[in-house]
């Protein structure tokens, strides 16, 4: 999308700043994971960016680099999905269903999940 914007504005000589989000490992530029070619210069998105002149960015090189870890990213996502504990969490019913879930609890100002009120200490409870 950023490449498309830059290419659309190039013929009209409209200044175009793009915000890039390549893989950033350490946030110091030492790893080189976020390296971006700008004409004949090399910059690092984590320390020099993430905003750059869109007409100078070598998007072909950047897109090739973004695909570099696609296999590892897919494997990491699959491992995370298999071990994610969020599926074990209790899901809160939508607000319009709360009255059906526990009308007496709601009427008393309680929590339908039975969780303690975080403001009890402040109220002296």
Walk me through the structure:
By secondary structure, the protein is of the alpha+beta class. It has a domain at 2-68. The chain is 40% helix and 11% strand. The strands form two sheets. Strands 1-4 form a two-stranded antiparallel ribbon. A two-stranded antiparallel ribbon has the order 2-3.
Order of helices and strands: HEEEHEHHHHH
Helix coverage percent:
40-55%
The Rg value, from CA coordinates, equals 25 Å
Strand residue content: 5-15%
Distance between the termini: 54 Å
Structural class: alpha+beta
Q: Could you describe the largest sheet, including whether it forms a barrel?
A: 2 strands, antiparallel
The mean pLDDT is 77
Low-confidence stretches: none
Across the major sheet, the strand order is 1-4
* Silhouette: extended
Number of strands: 4
Total helical segments:
7
Keywords for this structure?
single chain, 125 residues, alpha+beta, two-stranded antiparallel sheet, 7 helices, 4 strands, extended
